[in-house]
Design a protein that fits this description.
It is globular and about 45 Å long. Helix content is 31%, strand content 21%. The protein contains 10 helices and 16 strands. With 346 residues, the chain is α/β, with parallel strands linked by helices. Helix 7 packs across helix 9. It folds into 2 domains: 146 residues, Murein tetrapeptidase LD-carboxypeptidase, N-terminal domain (Rossmann fold, 3-Layer(aba) Sandwich); 183 residues, LD-carboxypeptidase A C-terminal domain-like (Glucose Oxidase, domain 1), CATH 3.50.30.60. The strands form 3 sheets. Strands 6-16-15-10-11-12-13-9 form an 8-stranded mixed sheet. Helix 4 links the parallel strand 4 and strand 5.
């Protein structure tokens, strides 16, 4: 297992970069973006600094990489936050200046398509943070979710162990950003269901690795994932997106990672709560339950075949559902299958 460095943390009053390494959605949803920036200032005391492509949809990958490199190079910037995900960050990371990133380590926060950059930093020996989005989480309608904010605050400002907790309520049905009036309305939520534990009952500690399953599959196809021997011993963190991949697709993607030798090396697996609603597929409550159950069965099948001794936790709030817990990507995670507790070191 390759050792990795935790970057220094920001302090209230610091300048932090706000970038769009994936989709420049702030261009078409400026009111959501600006709400997130106001909350970044008010709730965390941080001063956001935007870059040329932050509000540009369809910016050239080289320009986005240039902004990322500039954010890491600027000594006055103490953290880097993504505005949102997308679907083409795979084309951005090859243009990064890795020497600059290594020489100027900073905490990077993002998820979904930002799995690309988190994995890239991981291969450079730097810990990143899976979670946090200026639009989705800081710009959440009504108010930011308290559990998200607590986790994000701890990840931004502390370096201690932090115990994750099951959400008392959760949701996967965002409101329509095309209607600015919805920013005053809380999104619909369901009562919390807790975590579901499966597999071995023991305590596992290791660095987190993984992210969005669809992006991991693309990274594997582009041969940008470290060899299985380097990732052995990691706590595998995995979740799926609003594209709602079928259970068959989920199984096949995990099977491919298993055939690559990856799954066998993971002693513990944290599975994000399945997002089961999208504007293109507005599922009923029953359809959502059926979708989530089918996905869980597919994941269980793959892990039974390729990682039968792993400790497994389902429905951890770490992905595309609301709230979202931040996971230190490459940082320490302890999964206690006996006491049924999950702690992370930020």
């Amino acid at each position: 297992m390759v050792s990795r460095m935790y970057p220094p943390k920001p302090r209230p009053g610091d300048r932090v970069a706000v970038v769009s390494p994936s989709a420049g959605l702030p261009e078409i949803f400026p009111y959501v973006h600006e709400l997130g920036l106001r909350r970044l200032r008010k709730e965390f005391g941080l001063e956001p600094v935007e870059y040329p492509t932050t509000r540009v949809l369809g910016a050239d990958p080289r320009d986005r990489a240039r902004d990322l490199t500039a954010a890491f190079a600027d000594p006055s910037i103490t953290a880097v936050l993504a505005t949102i995900g997308g679907d083409d960050q795979l084309t951005v990371t090859p243009h990064l200046d890795d020497a600059v990133l290594r020489a100027n380590p900073k905490p990077f926060f993002g998820y979904s398509d930002n799995t690309n950059l988190l994995n890239h930093l991981h291969r450079l020996g730097l810990v990143g943070y899976h979670g946090g989005s200026v639009l989705v989480h800081l710009g959440r309608p009504g108010a930011p979710h308290p559990l998200t904010m607590e986790s994000l605050r701890a990840a931004l400002f502390t370096s201690d162990w932090y115990e994750l907790r099951p959400a008392r309520e959760w949701g996967d049905e965002p409101l329509d950003w095309n209607d600015p009036s919805t920013l005053d309305i809380e999104p619909p939520m369901f009562p919390g269901t807790g975590w579901t534990w499966a597999g071995a009952q023991r305590t596992v500690e290791g660095p987190a690795w993984g992210g969005n399953l669809e992006i991991l599959h693309w990274l594997a196809a582009a041969d940008r994932i470290a060899p299985a021997v380097e990732l052995a011993g990691a706590v595998f963190v995995v979740e799926t997106s609003e594209e709602l991949p079928s259970a068959v697709e989920v199984y096949r993607m995990l099977r491919n990672l298993g055939e690559r030798g990856l799954l066998a090396g993971f002693p513990a697996v944290l599975v994000g709560r399945a997002k089961a609603w999208d504007f293109a597929r507005p599922h009923t409550v029953e359809q959502r339950r059926e979708y989530a159950d089918a996905q869980r069965a597919a994941i269980t099948r793959a892990l039974t075949e390729y990682a039968p001794d792993a400790v497994i936790v389902f429905d951890v709030d770490l992905g595309h559902t609301d709230p979202q817990l931040v996971i230190p990507y490459g940082g320490d995670v302890r999964v206690d299958g006996v006491a049924r507790r999950i702690t992370v070191r930020y």
